[in-house]
Amino acid sequence: MENLLNCVDEVMMQLNDTSAEKEYLTEILKDLKENEENLRKSKEAMQNDLTSLEKQVKRQNEEQGEKSVVTPKEKEIHLQVERAKQHRQDAGLELEKYVTDMQQCQEQLSKLSVDRENICDKNSTQLEKIKYDIDLYTHITGIRWQYDCEADDIKGYISKHGFLKPFTLNSRKNSGFFVANYLWDLMEES
Fold first, then answer.
1. Sheet containing 163-170, strands listed edge to edge, beginning at the edge strand earlier in sequence
2. Where do the record's region annotations for Disordered lie (predicted)?
3. Beta-carbon neighbour count of residue 106 at 10 Å?
């Protein structure tokens, strides 16, 4: 009986663990999507800045009539354009990394969902078997357990053939062997 109750507790813990994992992965996925959106916006802004800088350089070149002498301001603008291109390339690589991470998280989330469904199906079958076994033991022995007692107490009553025999035992003071024999003796008396 105790083994069956331990099995029920273990099944419930597994269900709670997979639920927590799913919530954690969902939170990570949400964060990755937010990061991806921020990077996309940043990339668009850099693209716009780069385009305007390129237009400015082109306009200045046209105004100066393709002079062979490059002014310090033009050098600065060229450097800004190059830095902006490099920054855009770095942001693109970072965006690709986030997209890859997000895809991996989505795959892991779907795998965990499938695993959770399998565990739930398996556990529901086990729970039905455990409930059947407990009902069978209750019917055969006539023992009715009282579950609203202290953790160390074993309480209940035996109801057979019109007789009612209550019992209260302490699992710390009494061995499992004593408890089993005591309950068998009570069942024989009724």
1. 143-146, 153-160, 163-170
2. 55-74
3. 14
For residue 94 the two structure tokens come to 């970072």
pLDDT tens-digit map of 26-43: 787 787 788 778 878 888
In DSSP terms, 164 is beta-bridged to: 159
Of the candidates 118, 117, 96, 99, the one whose C-alpha atom is nearest the C-alpha of residue 107 is: 99
Tokens read off for 167: 């019992």
Q: Distances from the Cα of 66 to the Cαs of 50, 51, 173, in angstroms?
A: 21, 20, 101
Please name the residue that has the structure tokens 């399998």: 118
Give the amino acid at 16: N
Look at residues 55, 54, 74, 79 and name the one whose alpha carbon lies nearest to residue 64: 74
The whole-number pLDDT of residue 5 equals 52
Question: Would residue 162 be called left, alpha or beta, if left means φ above 0 and alpha means ψ between -120 and 50 degrees?
Answer: left
Q: Show the DSSP H helices in 65-168 as ranges.
A: 72-141
With 0.70 as the threshold, say if the pTM is over it: no
